[in-house]
Amino acid sequence: MIRVLIADDHPIYRKGLLQILMETPDMFAVYEAGSGEEALAKVCDNDYDLVLLDLSMPGRGGLDALKVLKSHYPKLPVLVLSMHPEEQYAVRALRAGASGYLNKECAWHELVNAIHKVLEGGKYVSAALAENLASNLGNNANKPLQEVLSDREYQVFRMIASGKTVGAIATELSLSVKTISTHRVRILEKMRLKNNTELIHYFASNRLCD
What we know:
Elements: E1 2-7, H1 11-22, E2 28-33, H2 36-45, E3 50-53, H3 62-72, E4 78-82, H4 86-95, E5 100-103, H5 108-119, H6 127-135, H7 151-161, H8 166-173, H9 177-190, H10 196-205
Helix pairs in contact: 2-3, 7-9, 7-10, 8-9
């Protein structure tokens, strides 16, 4: 019996994944978590063979949860399923310890193939992402500016670009306004931007919106 934890804040999506797993020939026992905090608590109290993890969850986000999971349970395979395009978050997820990355719009058979590969100890990325990674090896000159940001800075960058205020971001991430303001200053410095207007323009012109 393969014990799988689905960590996603959308109940309907969790049920859809459960249905897919139940229709495969493999024997799955499926458990659910609706947040990063709940996922961490359940992994602490139970033994799982695989975690299917969303990145965009309230409170402690999936990327933060992934880092904590891998620090405490380095051998536990974590397959990230996200609405974010691969080019935006896949490399960050893999660097944080994910065994693979899939966009939520992937076909069900690709998901099943990915699950099998990571359960066998391998890494899974789509053919398109693998080609993109190969073409960019050693090509730092053309590296997008946002890639110099830390994972937290990149998260704040996206939230500012979406129109959220510093206060709203602080509340959503359970951080202080001062901390978010500091992140904002560092983001602007690292990306050589002057203000939020330039940041939003960069975000839109580089088609970083989902």
